Amino acid sequence: MANLIIKNGTYLGSLFSFKTDVIVGRTQGETSQSGAQIFIDDENISRQHLHIFLKESGYYVEDLASTNGSCLGNTPLIPGQIYPLHDGEVIRIGDTQLLFSDIDSNSPKSQSLQSAATADMQFEFDDEAPTLEVVADNQVHQDVSLIVDASQLMLDLKKHQDSELLKNQELVKRMQAMVQVSMALGATTNLEELMACITEQIFELFSGAERAFVMLYEQAKTRLVPLSVRYRDKAGKVDKNIGISRSIIKNVLENRQAVLIEDAQGDLQYGQQASVMNLAIRSVMCAPILYNNKVLGLVQVDNREGGNAFSAEELQILTAVCSQLAISLRNSQLYEEIENLFEGFVKASVQAIESRDPGTAGHSFRVADYAEKLAIAVDRSDAPALRAINFSRDQIKELRYASLLHDFGKVGVRENVLTKARKLYPYELENLKLRAHYAEACLQERAYRALVEKQIIEKLTPAQFAGEKQQLEKQLLREKAHLHRFLDMVLELNEPGCQLEELIEGLADYKGFQFETIAHESQLLMEAFEFSALTDSRGTLSVIERKEIETHVSHTFIFLSLIPWTSRLSGIPDIAHAHHERLDGSGYPRNLKGEAIPLPAKLMSIVDIYDALTAGDRPYRQGLNSESALALIESEVKQGKLDENLFRVFVESNSYQR
Questions:
Q1: How far lies 615's CA from each of 64, 80, 211, 473, 655, in Å?
Q2: Which residues pair with 211 in a beta bridge?
Q3: Rounded CA separation 439/518 (Å)
């Protein structure tokens, strides 16, 4: 029996059990299981996304050519290939994390673990895998082999530099290795990489270590969160259950003491505990991670039956490692806090800019999603022209921030230009309509005034007056129809994208048309700028307005250049600056060509155009469907404006689907 447990989101903790195989796919509604199908409410999961099945040697997983791909831990799965699944590993699909467990939920071992988890504990533990098997000891004090005050250890080492302990060649060798540990820990701020680094170095330092794990202590919630569990002889193996004693926790976390148990099997207290018996533990070292006298977590190292017992010297080395780890862990936490702060600032800034133009709301966030997906697809591509392209995690992050901020310069564009939905501004159209109505009223006033003057001069009979009036009204109807035709053409041509030749030719008939006002002055029915705007073939913007819109790219570059980016994100201004450049030099603002355009900017150009074409919230036109949008982009590719290889991956990988 195997289980999948959801690790995040609304359905956190949901458990699905199966025996032989199961298909995981998307549903719209409640996350549920039906036979050999598991349905998850996640729009980023394909309808048939993942296949988990049982073979003789164990369980395996296969990505079913899903749209957004799958990861086992942080390893992307190649569609069609099968990968072994180990108990406790995490599968990432869409926005969902699934913990895999091949422990029968009805087995005696599982039930005993559940009982231990529900026992009265002094500490509360995180529910996410790997979980903790807490053994409730009968006595608070344990007869351990050695307890070390970790906070004093480094001071003691400095006081006894000439002691026999430090003259020991093996210890000197390990202390040299400690330098390597310090260098390795200082080389990364990523928590995941940091944990992998420390457990790897532990196996280098302690030849007898078979297992090592690191736990973070969240003091506010009084709980331990497992960060890393590694085995020397089982690369990638992570147990769902970590054997750990309450007394060790007490000594390490409350008393800030490192603990050594040389022979756990022979110990009167530990030898009878479930964690020791089930895992066949022989010797254990556990040390706190201290920073400014506060416990950040702990590191435990152990081995099994047949292994050599750890020594007091090795416990001191482990404590020294923890002192180095504390600084790196704190730096990692601070770095994460800074990243979260910056991420929040970026999102708030983008939200503020897009609020000026409701028609493009969400555009930058969608472009960032598309760009990130396309970069991953390009990285996986086997196309000969793209094999040399590899996007690191930092490069994808750089691309994502550049995508989020690519339109930031619109803050320097006038809002009426930014939100212009028709060729004429509303007040301009209203003025033109009023002018046409005024012209109609003037024509009518002039005609009736002429009839009255004729009556006064010629003294028309009633029959003659009626005849003159009838002829006058026929003439007025023709002139009114002429003006109404004019307004109809204006309203139709004012719509974005309307460039009907017959309408443009018809409107040209009114160019220069004048009428006499009540004050007997000549007045143009249509101004020259109005005719130009209505017959412009470039959408709703005039040439001057389009130039103003195009300046947003330069404004973006200037703004982003003022930010002191780290070396890993230093390319953001240049990427954002070039996202409107085209391979043939027809883009803006610098008319760059070919290789002069950064690769991430070429990638962003494609997804930026796609979202602009398919967005359904633009006031000046309706969004196109995917097929029509891709066809238009393909025409740009054929004209040599966009990268053909990147576009092909965009289509074949379905990166355009959200």
A1: 29, 33, 52, 51, 16
A2: 231, 302
A3: 9
Q: Is 290 helix (H, G, I), strand (E, B) or coil?
A: strand
**Above pLDDT 90, what percent of the chain?**
31
Dist. CA 135–CA 274, nearest whole Å: 7
Element holding 109 (H helix, E strand):
helix 108-118
The two tokens of residue 377 are 């697809």
- Residue range 119-158, pLDDT digits in tens: 323 333 333 444 444 444 433 333 344 555 555 544 554 4
**Pairing status of strand 281-291 against strand 257-261:** antiparallel
Name the token pair of 429: 């159209």
DSSP string, 203-237: HHH-TT--EEEEEEEEGGGTEEEEEEEEESSSTT-
Question: What fold, for 2-105?
Answer: Tumour Suppressor Smad4 (2.60.200)
Fold classification of 355-415+544-652 is Hypothetical protein af1432 (1.10.3210)
| Region at 204 (left for phi over 0; alpha for psi -120 to 50; beta for the rest) | alpha
378 in helix, strand or coil? Answer: helix
Q: What is the pLDDT of residues 95-114, one digit of tens each?
A: 898 988 875 444 443 333 33
Which fold would CATH assign to domain 111-334?
Answer: Beta-Lactamase (3.30.450)
Nearest to 365 by CA among 404, 397, 339, 406: 404
pLDDT digits (tens, 9 = 90+) for 378-397: 998 888 889 888 898 889 99
Q: Which residue has the higher pLDDT, 557 or 542?
A: 557
Our separate counts of H helices and E strands in the chain read: 20, 22
Distance CA 580, CA 642 (A): 10
Q: Find where tokens 């703004």 sit.
A: 559
